[in-house]
Amino acid sequence: MKNQAMIKKFDRQSKTYDKRRGSDPTDKYRARIIPEAWGKVLEVGIGAGGNFPYYNDDIELTGVDFSPEMLKAARTAAADYPFETTLVEVDVEEVQFEEDSFDTIVSTLSFCAYRDPESVLARFRKWCRPGGTILMMEHGESTNRLLAGALNVLDPVSMKVLGCHQNRNISDIVRHSDLKITKEERHLAGCLYMLWVKI
Ligand SMILES: C[S@@+](CC[C@H](N)C(=O)[O-])C[C@H]1O[C@@H](n2cnc3c(N)ncnc32)[C@H](O)[C@@H]1O
């Protein structure tokens, strides 16, 4: 799918994500993983800033997203939080950052959308400095067989309407990369993946 078509899909969802900040069903999980971000933080696919309420005050945040409408909402919201925030409109699959630039890389609910998630992980490996942390809270394939079957059926529609795959096994994708999972949790019938990862 052409990028412009994907960007439009996410632009259309920006108001929903803006309203949900702090009251999304995923917030209790965000509250457990996001406070572990430290130092220079890169958040990919930052959306409308759904993780802002959970960051510590002393981080230095760079947020990237290819949707201008999501970034507009994030920019307004960022003014309410004390940490320093830089927001950049770029494609995560194309942007270049220096090697070892970040102490923490955060990705929440964005791996469903990438054309090539394996290459995004290779980018994380390059951008995260040794000793740094990669924190992921993603959705994908369920551990419940019935639900997994239903999500497989739904996948083409979800991709067409939302720009979002429903059946990726995020743990497997990370496990097959050069990164190391140090802690893993699955919630919500296994659809929600929480991964603490090191390079
Ligand atoms: C489902 S939303 C999640 C937003 C936010 N991470 C959250 O947890 O609330 C996915 C976000 O990833 C962004 N995104 C998807 N693919 C992208 C890409 N290749 N480059 C940059 N942003 C991307 C979308 O624009 C959207 O804002």
From TrEMBL:
UniProt xrefs under Pfam families: Methyltransf_11
Domain (Methyltransferase type) ranges: 42-135
Biological process (GO), any one: methylation
Transmembrane segments: none
MF GO annotations: methyltransferase activity
Cross-referenced SUPFAM superfamilies: S-adenosyl-L-methionine-dependent methyltransferases
Keywords annotated in UniProt: Methyltransferase, Transferase
Record protein name field: Class I SAM-dependent methyltransferase
Organism: Salinicoccus bachuensis
